[in-house]
Fold this protein.
Amino acid sequence: METEQSPPVVKTVTSTEGPKPAAKAPSKRRRVLIVAAIVVGILLLVFGVPRVIRAFNTVSTDDAYVNGYVTFVAPRVSGQVARVLVDNNNRVKKGDVLVELDPEPYQVQVAIKEAALGAAQANLTVAQANVRGLIGQARSGRYKLSRAIEDVDNQIALIAARVATWEQEKATLVLAQQEFDRAERLLSTRVVSQEEYDERREALDVAKAQVTQALQNIYQARVALGLPAQVPEGKTLADVPPDLDQTFSSVREAQAELLMSAAQLGIVPSSYTLTPKEMLDEFYRRDPKGDLDRIYAEVIKNAPTLKQAQTSVLQAQRDLDQANLNLRYCTVVAEIDGVISRRNVNPGNNLQAGQSVMAINSLRDVWIDANFKETQLRNLRIGQHVGLKLDMYGGKHTFEGRISGFTYGTGSTLALLPPQNATGNFVKVVQRLPVRIDVLNYDPDKLPLFAGLSVTPTVDLGIAPTGPNAGQFLQSPER
């Protein structure tokens, strides 16, 4: 019986222990797969979902480049190059000397213009002295005209006085004649003595002589005024033309002298048909005190000779200023901060004014020109935040930027010869629109941006636009 029972026991043990390891192996792999799936799911949730969400909230392109201002350097005057103080890739600051031209020709011009200015100033001094002399002549001419009119008026009054004296002497003669005739009648009767008769005769002779002398005085006064000694019938010796004080030769000469001297001072009467008295009154109204020096400042403004001298001084001063400016232009300086490029000048070269000799690339005034597809522009606006990655820095540093404007037209439409698609073989191509992105917090000393470098801008649509014209398509100028 022992032999019958022992084999089954052994077989049973062998048969039960053999399959157990084979049943446990599938359960372990399942647990590993489950854990791996959970880990992958977590990784997808942590890294994948944000990327998917960000993909819906960002717009990006790799068609973008760094751009910046380039200032071309050119001399403002022509000349021979004496020194070149910079070379390509040199960094310069505003005001640094770049090129020096030979200054000698312009120094000579400065000396010539200084001499011309000195001569013009000397001429002005002479002109001022001449104007003062003309003022004296005008004052003298005005005095002469006044005296001439006064002399004529006095001469007319003298004629009237002498005519009155003549009339008085004639009355005296009549009385003397009567006294003499009486004495002559009474002489024979001895009523009048011979001595009294002689006195009456002498008185008569004196009266006749005085009448004759008075008449001669009248003739002299009339001739002095250009009047005939003998008067026509119906006229008296006292009659004179009413405008004699306006037409007399001395008055006209004095008037002409006054007009000439005044005209050289720029002083002209309101009308040349004025009578001498009216003209004299007008000049006195301009200068009531009779002193033309009182209005010297006004005369200086209008005197033609002085104006011409002053104009010459001003022109000479302008010429000297221009000569000094040209001399200063012999030193060509940098107008902006930046880096030198495209140098094409050497000492000894002869340059013309405006000839470009080098360029300065600005390091600070840089921006990004990003060419977004037209299908990406729907949600883009001015002021949106942009992340900028450059291939130059391996994408390890992200610059901050902000959209500042949209070009009002694609590159092809703004070309000199825009394309015309009216032939029937049109193929629609997605267009790209240049978008300008300003770089924020940019420090060229740490991480410089060079023009032409490739950039990958990413616009974050989840951040609200900021800055001027935020949220708009078109940019308004800053006032």
